[in-house]
């Protein structure tokens, strides 16, 4: 089973796997609660998939200055 979007494509948007997972999980909970997402034609049926698609389409980003190393 191939997961889409791929981790390689996602890491071109957000460099850290930890940040990517944390952001996607938090956004997935928001989508689950509100039933509102920012993807016009989603390919995914899951909340996490929708969150990852938002990241890939750059509708969801991280302010690198606010990330603590």
From TrEMBL:
Pfam families named among the record's database cross-references: RNA_pol_Rpb6 (PF01192)
UniProt key word Nucleotidyltransferase: yes
Biological processes annotated in GO: DNA-templated transcription
E.C. no: 2.7.7.6
Catalytic reactions on record: RNA(n) + a ribonucleoside 5'-triphosphate = RNA(n+1) + diphosphate
SMART domains: RNA_pol_Rpb6
InterPro entries according to UniProt: DNA-dir_RNA_pol_omega, Pol_omega/Rpo6/RPB6, RPB6/omega-like_sf
GO molecular function, one term: DNA-directed RNA polymerase activity
Keywords, sorted A to Z: DNA-directed RNA polymerase, Nucleotidyltransferase, Transcription, Transferase
A Gene Ontology term for the protein's cellular component: DNA-directed RNA polymerase complex
Superkingdom field: Bacteria
Region forming the signal peptide: none
The keyword Nuclease is annotated on this UniProt entry: no
Role according to the record: Promotes RNA polymerase assembly. Latches the N- and C-terminal regions of the beta' subunit thereby facilitating its interaction with the beta and alpha subunits.
Record family assignment: Belongs to the RNA polymerase subunit omega family.
Subunit text: The RNAP catalytic core consists of 2 alpha, 1 beta, 1 beta' and 1 omega subunit. When a sigma factor is associated with the core the holoenzyme is formed, which can initiate transcription.
Protein name: DNA-directed RNA polymerase subunit omega
Recorded name of the encoding gene: rpoZ
């Amino acid at each position: 089973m191939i997961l889409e979007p791929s981790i390689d494509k996602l890491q071109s948007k957000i460099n850290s796997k930890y940040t990517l997972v944390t952001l996607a999980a938090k956004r997935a909970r928001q989508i689950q609660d509100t039933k509102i997402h920012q993807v016009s034609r989603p390919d995914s049926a899951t909340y996490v998939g929708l969150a990852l698609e938002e990241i890939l389409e750059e509708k969801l980003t991280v302010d690198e200055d606010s990330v603590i190393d």
